[in-house]
Amino acid sequence: MSRRYWIHSAPDDYTEDGQRECARGDRCSAPRLSDESGRTVRLPALTYQAFCPQDRNAISKALNDLPELFVRVHQRLDKTFQAVAGGPIVAVSKTAPVPLSLAADELLRLILATLVSWEERVRTVARLKPLDTATSRRRRDGVVFSQSWTILAAHLDALLALGAEPMLRDGEFVDLDGADAGLDLLDLAHRCRRFLTDTKQPSRHLSGVYCDCGYPELFELLDDDGQPAGARCRQCRAEYDAEQYTDLTRARVEPVKSYRRRPLQPAGRDDHTSRRA
Ligand SMILES: [Zn+2]
Ligand SMILES: [Zn+2]
């Protein structure tokens, strides 16, 4: 986690007109292309702020995406907890990796600690009431998250313009400024997306259900939250949404029912006459 703090720890190189390189460095979204001895090299955009406008937008988008990402990571935590605690099991396969909840919990702690640390800095420059950290430690996750997020979203440019001050990271004090705040937000959104992708369950084979192509090669499709969202055929690549898949299974169930009913049909004519008599 500390690696990226080196990226621009060297004194900023300002151009003559007071611009500096975008703090995203090599990953700048709007790089300048420059020709150096016949080779084209990408250089970060020049900007008067910490980030170029494109990367400022990318950070704003990452911040906007965070509430939904936070909820989705939180759901992974809850599902595993329920499975472990013997509660109602919702689409948790037996092959689910055990440390899932631990990884989700670590990520949630990182998000909260990071947001709260920047919230404290923003409160100082925006002259808001300081955060009472003693009580804030006891606030519930959702409350902590939405309060920090609201403050940061309302003061994004103040956040990105923060000067360097010592902040606690991985048990040590490091000088962090608004550029670090922007990189933190991009990093958190990226970690959430990677976590949600990595912890996706492998798609299950839906045995006994035939695709319209005639092969029983349907595999379950899951949505971003791991809930069943239909099926895909590995033979012909056809996709069925949840409703279409239900129709498909219903259509396959019908023949089975009529087959079972057959023995209930009246036997020979003789029986009828003998019963009536
Ligand atoms: Zn940039
Ligand atoms: Zn098919």
State the secondary-structure class. Answer: alpha+beta
Separate helix tally: 8
Round the Cα radius of gyration to an integer and report it.
Answer: 29 Å
For the record, give the distance between the C-alpha atoms at the N and C termini, rounded to a whole number: 90 Å
| Overall geometry | flat
- Major sheet characteristics: 3 strands, antiparallel
Proportion of residues in extended strands: 5-15%
**Beta-strand segment tally:** 9
Following the backbone from N to C, one meets helices and strands in this order, namely: EEEEHHHHHEEHEEEHH
Strand order within the widest beta sheet = 7-8-9
Helical residue percent band: 40-55%
Averaged pLDDT, please? 80
Count of domain modules: 3
Bound molecules: zinc ion
Could you list the spans in which at least 5 consecutive residues all have pLDDT below 50? 1-11, 80-93, 258-262, 270-277
Explain this structure to me?
This protein is α+β, with helices and mostly antiparallel strands. It folds into three domains: 4-47, no CATH class; 52-198; 204-277, no CATH class. Helix content is 47%, strand content 14%. It has helices at 53-85, 100-125, 133-136, 141-154, 156-160, 178-198, 242-261, 269-276; strands spanning 20-21, 32-36, 39-43, 46-47, 165-169, 172-176, 218-222, 228-233, 239-241. Strands 7-8-9 form a three-stranded antiparallel β-sheet. A hairpin with a 5-residue loop joins strand 8 (228-233) and strand 9. The longest helix is centred in the first third of the chain and has 33 residues, at 53-85. 24% of the residues are buried. The model is unreliable at 1-11, 80-93, 258-262 and 270-277 (pLDDT under 50). One zinc ion (ZN) binds at residues 22, 24, 28-30, 44-45, 51-52, 54-55.
